[in-house]
User: Which sequence fits this backbone?
């Protein structure tokens, strides 16, 4: 399997502007930061949640509590999985009960990761609401799940692959679209 | 790196990498115990059969808890309630299980090699929950996890296993696993309970308890297995306690940071005194908690558990 890069669809400036806009939208919808918490989906949702927290702080002044979610033990495809176990941690340093949770991930595709993440959150408590923020929505949903805040809508074919690079995890900030070929 | 194997029958044939992988995944599962909901749904719809052909409380409950916390469906059968009392052979039982399409078998048996035999008959993964005097790999893994949590890298760490070495599958699994991780193992017990050829497993034999504990980082105190005829190997419980029992006095001879483990169930005031068993130097209940986590990790990994999308970094 090889990855062939076709185009950069977001550069660092565009990513930063999208995150700032999403921060404003979150604040507009919630009317402030009280009761808000950010949960990043492992792995790239976590640095993205950090960027959103910083953007919210720049506007509102306060710091929104942040955690991370690992969905490994909530997947629906145990029998189809490949060879490298790499389990990250779920860190929930607060009680989510009665909070408004902003779930943050890099790419929204089939919706299965989000489905698993919702189950993780429910096992930790009962939030007042859960909203979904994604940097890229590429379509092809397999479950009735929709995002509340989107950085960029990118129509894709199912053969294409979207790669998001976020500082804190990668050494650059960009979103690229490419194709995976058998080679 | 993953568990590229169908079964876990012992630590003898497991590599250091495999052992460390199980410990790593087990530590993730331990974190689940502190949540309001202490189970995860990953094994939903899979059937695990617990086949206990020998009495067991803690191992059986620990396996059952591990399976429940993975949301597996569980069938338990033990010898008292099964057709073994009607004379069915192990092979017939196995073939019946296979015909019923189970996803995994956990087996405890009084005969060494029973788990290996079943693993050859059955296509599903088999986990050995203790076979005769051979191995008890999940106990070995939970013991090693408890040591690893406190001591970190086990290379060069000194582990002293005390007691009924001859009858102990726990000792054997500990020795195999600890040697793989580079620990230095000493065994200590009455000469009647230490097999003459045990040094061939790569351990030091020391009959003097005081000497055996002086340099140790960990004492793993074995249960005297009266049910396996260990009672004939020493004159009386009181004499055993006086010679090889882990008492406050013995603990005072330990290095300050060394700690005491026991696989349970304890014969209080035989192999371990109540003061030590309830004292500040033991980590026995931590072993119990790690036992559930280690069993969850093994069941998960043998089920093909692996976060593929996480590893490649692609969001699905």
Assistant:
């Amino acid at each position: 399997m090889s990855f062939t890069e076709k185009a950069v669809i977001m550069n660092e400036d565009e990513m930063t502007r999208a995150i700032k806009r999403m921060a404003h939208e979150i604040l507009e919808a919630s009317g402030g930061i009280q009761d808000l918490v950010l949960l990043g989906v492992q792995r790239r949702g976590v640095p993205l949640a950090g960027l959103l927290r910083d953007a919210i702080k720049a506007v509102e002044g306060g710091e929104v509590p942040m955690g991370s979610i690992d969905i490994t033990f909530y997947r629906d495809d145990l029998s189809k999985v490949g060879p490298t176990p790499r389990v990250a941690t779920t860190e929930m340093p607060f009680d989510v009960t009665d909070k408004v949770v902003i779930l943050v991930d890099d790419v929204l595709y089939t919706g299965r990761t989000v489905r698993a993440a919702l189950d993780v959150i429910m096992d930790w408590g009962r939030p007042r609401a859960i909203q979904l923020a994604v940097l890229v929505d590429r379509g092809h949903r397999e479950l009735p799940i929709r995002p509340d805040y989107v950085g960029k809508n990118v129509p894709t074919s199912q053969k294409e692959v979207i790669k998001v690079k976020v500082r804190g995890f990668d050494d650059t900030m960009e979103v690229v679209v490419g194709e995976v070929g058998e080679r | 790196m993953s568990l590229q194997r169908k079964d876990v029958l012992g630590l003898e044939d497991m590599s250091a990498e495999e052992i460390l992988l199980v410990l790593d995944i087990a530590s993730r599962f331990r974190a689940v115990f502190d949540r309001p909901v202490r189970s995860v749904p990953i094994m939903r719809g899979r059937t695990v059969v617990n086949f206990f052909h020998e009495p067991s409380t803690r191992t059986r409950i620990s396996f059952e808890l591990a399976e429940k916390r993975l949301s597996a469906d569980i069938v338990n059968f033990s010898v008292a309630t099964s057709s073994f009392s009607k004379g069915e052979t192990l092979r017939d039982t196995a073939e019946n299980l296979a015909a019923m399409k189970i996803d995994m078998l956990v087996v405890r048996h009084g005969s060494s090699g029973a788990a290996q035999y079943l693993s050859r008959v059955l296509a599903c993964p088999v986990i050995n929950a203790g076979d005769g005097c051979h191995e008890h790999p999940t106990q070995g893994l939970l013991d090693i996890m408890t040591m690893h949590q406190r001591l970190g890298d086990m290379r060069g760490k000194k582990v002293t296993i005390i007691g009924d070495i001859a009858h102990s599958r726990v000792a054997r699994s500990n020795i195999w696993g600890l040697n793989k991780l580079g620990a230095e193992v000493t065994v200590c017990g009455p000469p009647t309970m230490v097999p003459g050829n045990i040094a061939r497993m790569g351990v030091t034999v020391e009959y003097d308890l005081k000497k055996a504990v002086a340099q140790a980082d960990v004492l793993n105190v074995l249960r005297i297995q009266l049910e396996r005829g260990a009672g004939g190997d020493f004159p009386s419980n009181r004499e055993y306690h006086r010679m090889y029992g882990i008492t406050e006095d013995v603990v005072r001879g330990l290095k300050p940071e060394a700690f005491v483990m026991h696989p349970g169930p304890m014969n209080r005031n035989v192999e371990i005194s109540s003061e030590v068993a309830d004292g500040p130097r033991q980590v026995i209940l931590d072993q119990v908690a790690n036992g559930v986590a280690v069993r969850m990790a093994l069941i998960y990994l043998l089920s093909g558990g692996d976060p593929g999308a996480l590893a490649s970094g692609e969001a699905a």
